[in-house]
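The protein record passed on for reference:
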Amino acid sequence: MSSVVKRNHVNVIGNGEKIIMLAHGFGCDQTTWKFITNAFLDDYKLVLFDYVGSGNSDISHYDFHKYATLDGYACDVIDIISELNLQNVIFIGHSVSAMIGILAAIQKPNVFEKLIFIGPSPKYINSHQYFGGFEKNQIEDLFKFMAADFSGWANHLAPQVMQNPLKPELSDFLQESFESMNPKVALAFAKATFNCDHRESLKSLCVPSVSILATDDFVAPKTVGEYIKRHTPYNSSHMMTATGHYPHISDPEETIRTIKYFIEGDKNFNLKPEPHASSGLQISN
């Protein structure tokens, strides 16, 4: 087992030849994809991994300096792609992994075929003429809560971001994922995530992409998806009926249909829209 494979607990599953790389969000690991992976095993090869400090990654490789920004995580994505000699990668990134995927694709555009973002955001904090969803003091309070009472923070946040009160087991699953992280590493990852500003990076992405947005997702609101579409070449967006920040967990069926539509398309859908296309991806149920 190579050091990269061990470091990021890389698993490759599936019987197809086309590559889908699944990148989890903050506070999670590769197990959060388990609700959708079976739908792709026959036709694709899935590359699953954990960011250092998450899941079953080798935490001895964690470096607070390297992972103080999202660039460190993007370097690891490139390492995995290089180690496995992957080409024509379809990268699916949830939440902060959307920006990590963009940073990786800017560095190595030739190895990526498409990027699919679930709940993406280039900047979470509101600023002049930009609505990211949070005020700076709200984010600072979040960090203080994590530092003072990590378990209490996880218990408080999980149901809020899941936004599925009739399915409390999903919030419980997410809370367990949050609590599995080392609190100091989780706080550092949170700071790298919520303090980031990658709005300028959007214009440098030359790989076709789509933003999949969920209803009532206050972490990545619709306005952010619209911002990404306006400022990212070759980007489309689609609003799902699924609610919350984790549609691949709360509504895997709709998420699977949406992903497959973008990957496979149909004879009437152009997978290479004009830069800064104004029309979003439309999916018929």
